[in-house]
Amino acid sequence: MSCFVHHMIRKGIFFELGIFASEENADDLESKIASIVGLSGHGCDEVWTEVSAWLENKRLKEVLKQKLLE
C-alpha cells in the first residue's frame, strides 16, 4: 500500500513528529496509522483523508504521534 506514507515522508511530517520513516518501514507505518485512525482495511484515499484531518487537529496529531512511538 504505502500510498500516503511516501507523501508524509516527502512533506517532512514524520520528521516533525519525531518518527523514523523510510521506504523500508513505509508499509508498516501505513498499517499502523490506518489502525490508529480506525480505518484498517480501508482504501488509501479514505485513510489519507482521515489522517489529514488528524494532522490538522493539534490534539489528534499528538495522539497519532504518541501511538506511533509506542
Q: How would you sum up the global shape?
A: globular
Helix and strand content put the structural class at mainly alpha
How far the N terminus sits from the C terminus, by CA atoms, comes to 22 Å
The domain count comes to 1
- What does the average pLDDT come to? 94
The fraction of residues in strands falls at under 5%
| Estimated helix fraction | over 70%
Residue ranges: pLDDT <50 for 5 or more in a row? none
Quick one: biggest sheet? none
Number of strands: 0
Order of helices and strands: HHHHH
List the total number of helices. Answer: 5
User: Compute the gyration radius: what is it?
Assistant: 11 Å
Protein model, in words:
The longest helix has 13 residues, at 44-56. The mean pLDDT is 94. Helix 1 crosses helix 3 (26-36) and helix 4 crosses helix 5. This protein is globular. The protein has 70 residues and is mostly helical. It has one domain. The protein has helices at residues 3-10, 13-17, 26-36, 44-56, 58-69.
Helix-strand layout with pairing:
Layout: H1 3-10, H2 13-17, H3 26-36, H4 44-56, H5 58-69
Helix pairs in contact: 1-3, 4-5
In brief, what are we looking at here?
The protein has 70 residues and is mainly alpha-helical. It is 70% helix and 0% strand. 17% of the residues are buried.
